[in-house]
Amino acid sequence: MIVGTVADQKVVQDIDDETDLTLSTVKVITTKKGDAGDKTVVVRQTGSTKNQTAGAIMTTGSTY
Predict the structure, then answer these.
(1) pTM of the entire structure?
(2) With the CA atoms of 16, 51, 58 and 15 taken in that order, what torsion angle do they form, in degrees rounded to the nearest 10?
(3) Alpha-carbon span 12 to 57, nearest angstrom
(4) Spatial separation of the C-alpha atoms in residues 10 and 36, rounded to whole Å
(5) How far apart are CA 61 and CA 19, in angstroms?
(6) What are the φ/ψ torsions at residue 12 (nearest 5 degrees)?
(7) Binning pLDDT at 50, 70 and 90, where does residue 3 land?
(8) Residue pLDDT, tens place only, 12-63
(9) How many Å apart are CA 12 and CA 46, to the nearest integer?
C-alpha cells in the first residue's frame, strides 16, 4: 500500500482508437513498508474525465 499525490496525468489510446486510458503519475508520500524516497508510480485507469467508465478517475493534485 502507498499514499501519494497525483502530480501529472495524460490520456492515451494505446489499445485501440476508441478507448481512453488515463495515466496518472503519482508521487509516493508513504509506503506500508520501507522508505518511499523520491519515488513515483504510474496508475493506469480505463476511461478519462471526458469518457468515464465504472469508477472515478483520479484527479491531479489529489492524494490517495
Answers:
(1) 0.85
(2) 0
(3) 14
(4) 24
(5) 24
(6) -125, 160
(7) very high
(8) 999 999 899 999 999 999 998 877 788 999 999 999 988 766 678 999 999 9
(9) 10
